[in-house]
Amino acid sequence: MSIPSIIVERLSKTFGQHAVLRDIDFEIHPGEMVALIGPSGSGKSTLLRHLIGLTRSDRHGGRVRLQGREVQVGGRLARATRPERCRTGYIFQQFNLVGRLSVLTNVLVGRLGSMPRGRALLGRFSEEERAMARRALARVGIEALADQRANTLSGGQMQRVAIARVLMQDANVILADEPIASLDPRSAQEVMQILARINEEDGRTVVITLHQVEVARRFCRRAIALKDGRLYFDGPIEALTDARLTALYENAGLDELKTRTPSIDLTAPVGALG
Ligand SMILES: Nc1ncnc2c1ncn2[C@@H]1O[C@H](COP(=O)(O)OP(=O)(O)OP(=O)(O)O)[C@@H](O)[C@H]1O
After folding, report:
1. Could you tell me if the CB of 41 is within 6 A of ligand 1?
2. Distance 20 CA to ligand 1 centre (A)
3. Ligand 1 centroid distance, CA of 85 (Å)
4. φ and ψ at 63, to 5 degrees?
5. Dihedral sign computed on CA atoms, order 200, 201, 204, 207
6. What does pTM read for this prediction?
7. What topology in the membrane does the UniProt record assign (predicted)?
8. Which of 20, 56, 209 to probe ligand 1 with, by most ligand atoms within 8 A of CB?
């Protein structure tokens, strides 16, 4: 059996007095596309940041392994975290592009981690790397924008550039933190379709935090749900019934529940759902 892409064991994180992650355990296998859902403040982004070592767990707060290598144990980052970061793509809600640089250069930035240090410092990219960046842009459908400045793009186009940059990393694992939260519905759908295609065609593992449960249902086969920092659900998306969703979001406020799960009839008694 193949090595899991991600192993999380008894992961716990406390900010001050606030326990944000509590004893989280799961494994994600190569080629999975997993939605990480839960009410606002349940710990989704914090969990994702732990996976790549951007946040350290509590002392004795568990372990994270990525593609068979230690990222952190008991609040200490493994020495070899940098190569793991290079082999893991991270997509942010706010895209994190350099606005004054061209689209092509922003995509090439994804290559810096795997280039010799001297060439990386000077930002000297080879013709082969430029051709690779153009292919990545073609794959996300915006090759024609290669020479445009990044800060002239729409949100949906910016997120496509961010995905192309991840493709340049040749990352086997892609972590996306609310990648569609600031996009209009159509751009959001297009970005999800691109991620799903990359997952399907390349077999890359994708973990994606989402606010919209309907989107998770449409694009992901598995969901991991957090509630108050605890693992509330981990299983096939179809097992995440309306009754479970109602319970997941029950203290989150009616507005959040309506937004996240538009399919739920809020007038029906919980026993009648799911
Ligand atoms: N660096 C930090 N210092 C202190 N508290 C933090 C820090 N980062 C996150 N938190 C707190 O941890 C909790 C979980 O935050 P997190 O962003 O992981 O939640 P989330 O589920 O991603 O929320 P949302 O869906 O609103 O983005 C929140 O109460 C947040 O205020």
Report:
1. yes
2. 7
3. 22
4. -145, 150
5. negative
6. 0.89
7. Peripheral membrane protein
8. 20
pLDDT tens for the chain, 274 residues long, are: 689 999 999 999 999 999 999 999 999 999 999 999 999 999 999 999 999 999 999 998 999 999 999 999 999 998 766 666 667 899 998 888 999 999 999 999 888 877 666 666 666 788 999 999 999 999 999 999 999 999 999 999 999 999 999 999 988 999 999 999 989 999 999 999 999 999 999 999 999 999 999 999 999 999 999 999 999 999 999 999 989 999 998 876 555 655 665 554 433 333 332 2
Q: Collapsing DSSP states into helix, strand and coil, what is residue 274?
A: coil
Give the CATH H-level superfamily of domain 1-87+211-274.
P-loop containing nucleotide triphosphate hydrolases (3.40.50.300)
Query: How far, in Å, is the centroid of ligand 1 from the Cα of 137?
Result: 33
Burial 65-85 (b: 16+ CB within 10 A, else e): bbbeebbbbeeebbeebeebb
Cα separation of 223 and 176, whole Å?
14
